[in-house]
Design goal:
2 domains, mainly alpha
């Protein structure tokens, strides 16, 4: 069996740019499962009005009927996987009223502070919200910083900031429980 040469080119690294590692993907599924648990707390009427796939709505309604801890855990894992196909911003908009406008404004200030100050703000945010994965938060910060440094179009910068805000909002929702 032929061995692959050890010399990696710049193209090899460029192809991996922006791609999440397996660990990051697993942690994202866990975050989504935690968000799914919060979505399951909504009333049946609110769940039916969610602008998501029918399979997800059925899964959220089914989990309310389960009493076994293991069955609920598996169902929330499934919900987390289904949530990966949905728009994060839409899902978070349904959970944001639980936080309130004051909390949303506070999280936006955190995002602005993280973009401005970098690591000191990231460290403080990590201490404040226990569900934070420092590495993931730092990756979001670096993407925003890279876009600003490369003078990317305004839409790209805003998209990166929105991803950072969505992550901060997810962490805050999960940490509050």
């Amino acid at each position: 069996m032929a061995r692959r040469p050890n010399s990696l080119t710049e193209e090899d690294f460029d192809s991996l740019e922006g791609r999440a590692s397996k660990t990051e993907q697993k942690k994202a599924v866990q975050r989504m499962a935690a968000l799914g648990a919060q979505l399951a707390e909504l009333s049946a009427k609110q769940i039916k009005n969610l602008p998501v796939e029918e399979r997800l709505i059925e899964a959220l309604l089914d989990v309310q009927e389960f009493t076994s801890h293991e069955a609920r855990r598996r169902q929330f894992s499934r919900i987390g996987k289904l949530l990966r196909n949905e728009n994060e911003t839409v899902i978070l908009s349904y959970l944001t009223p639980k936080q309130g406008l004051k909390k949303t404004a506070q999280l936006q200030r955190w995002v602005d502070r993280i973009v401005k100050d970098g690591d000191p703000a990231i460290n403080e945010f990590t201490k404040t919200y226990n569900a934070t994965e420092r590495h993931t938060l730092r990756q979001h910060y670096l993407r925003v910083h890279r876009d600003l440094k490369n003078q990317a179009p305004e839409a790209e910068v805003n998209a990166s900031k929105l991803k950072l805000f969505n992550y901060v909002q997810q962490v805050a929702l999960i940490s509050d429980n």
